[in-house]
## 1
Amino acid sequence: MHPLRIFATVFAMIAGLWLLANSIMSLTSAPEVDVLSSSVPNPDEIARPRVPEEAQSLKNPMTASPEMIVEGREIYLGSGNCYVCHGNEAKGDGEAGALLNPKPSDLTDPTFQRVRKDGEIFWAIKNGVPTRGMFSYVPRMITEEQAWKVVVYIRSLRSV
Ligand code: HEC
């Protein structure tokens, strides 16, 4: 056989194997996920700030206590109406939130709890999260003081 023919045959075999390997890889590798519509939260997406940076320096005027956690939870489940979207246990699975995109935040999420300052949580409750489907709740439904109590309750959901 002519050396050029041997080369061409070997080349064709390698190219064939490469194509085969690629098609197997594309069958087994995970499909691209659309972050916003995915039910599996992307940690980077959760960490991305939702509110202006100035909110980080807002100080929580409340001193947390077991009674205040209970009170904050009552507001969350009561006049604040938060549970309809964020769910009874604040995991982002409330009935009214099911059809929203993006989904209401899982307020128990460890990344959320780690990166968010109290002031950012308060800001979101007070002003809403523009463009993300979370409305403003102060003063429409609760007072600033009640919003801080809800912040205290949300903080109590930190798992560690
Ligand atoms: C109409 C449904 C709905 C209701 C009711 C609602 N939220 Fe939200 N909330 C959302 C959505 C949607 C987002 C945006 C999620 C995102 O940006 O990924 C959000 C975001 C938030 C955030 C910001 C999360 C972050 O990543 O910084 C906080 C805090 C929050 N909600 C708390 C509350 C509290 C407390 C209440 C009650 C006073 C409440 N929400 C009521 C739908 C709702």
## 2
Amino acid sequence: MMKILLQAGVPVPKDIPLPLPLPEWVLVVLLIVSFLMHLVFVNLMLGGSVLTLWAQLKGRKEKEYDVLAHEIAKTITVNKSLAVVLGVAPLLSINALYTIYFYSANALTGMMWIAIIPLVTFAFLLTYLHKFMWEKLEHNKALHISILALAVATFLFIPLIFLTNINLMLFPEKWGTIRGFMSALTLPNVFPRYLHFLCASMAVTGLFLFWYFGRRKYPFEERFSRLTRYDVRKSVYTLTLGASVFQFMIGPLVLITLPSKGIGWNLLIMILAGAAIALPAMYRIWKAITGPPEEMDRHFGKVVLAMTLTVLFMGSGRQVYRANALGPHQKLVAVKTAAFEKLSVAARNNLASEEEPPAADSSQGPYTKGARIFQTNCSTCHKPNEKLVGPPVTEMASIYRGQAPGLKSWIKAPGKKREGYPQMPGFPQLTDDQLNELAAYILSIK
Ligand code: HEC
């Protein structure tokens, strides 16, 4: 893995060597749990607005559906506010845990990433407008429905930006070739994941409305005369079942299109466990919608519990994939960061003894410059006498004795030689002068 990362010329930024504000595991748990809570309300906001649109369109012919649309619409703005509030914790956790990855992806999808803020504001205003203008626009349904349709379209688009961004951060090897949001969209697993998310939204919304319309306090019979409580609840429960069945088809597609670098047994176990728990719940829903009306509610608690566990397993699976996929790159970043810290300590020490010309340097005699270049670029992987990541300098010197040009061309564009060593990164950025100094220094070592 390290080998592939080095070969592909993957950007390896240095980290900011600051301690995390909380123990890492606390942040991971916080990230998973708070993200899933946020996601549930995003699901409800999206699913609710899609269903409202559907019911309102249907309501142009059958008045009762317009009432149904109004009832669902009342839940959207509440769920939307909860989604936003609950989004803060996961955003902060991911910032702290994956700073470099998250910010790199943010920067690469720049404009679109920032556009989330005006888009969210716009969509929220539309949902309020839609809700509060219900009576006023009673006789201009086309306008009223258009407002909602615009909100739905915006709601559908915002998660795609998030998902593209969060997906891009997993693939530092693509950062060099990604040019903005549109090209990040073309990474192979973006759309299957998006579809997976949309389906989850419908499943969760169905479950929520099943509960919402089933509450004893809810005056269903006062508001509806033709639609029955049973029929509406049965429909939304069926929606949950249908969306869950669909998830079983999209799920494998998501897995297949995930780049293999993050797939391991730990991930497969998480996902299979999540899927296994969902199956009996789906069976219970099936029983409920095909059985006698008075028994429809019997296992609802168990269904919700099982679905919650499924979501927890799937959500943890996400985190496992992320950790698997980024592990090797994080190691490279750590090496780079350590080297950088070493350099900055050295620089600070030099500053302290500014008065005198740096005495230590002259110890290398005519090879002072070369030694410095070596220190900056090579010493993280090469030591004078022993193997570190690469072979010792003494070995280089004996291979290239009398062949400075060969040494220089290796440094610029290294080949692949030794078994069991990673690929050495190339240094095309060194100038010819620097290469001469560097080669002279290396070849001076006995
Ligand atoms: C990220 C680690 C890393 C850095 C940084 C690095 N090297 Fe290497 N270097 C290696 C590895 C690994 C090998 C062995 C590669 C192989 O044999 O395939 C190697 C091999 C070499 C060799 C042996 C070539 C041969 O023909 O056998 C030379 C010479 C060398 N490095 C010089 C340098 C110089 C000079 C620098 C700094 C400009 C440098 N390396 C920076 C990892 C590194």
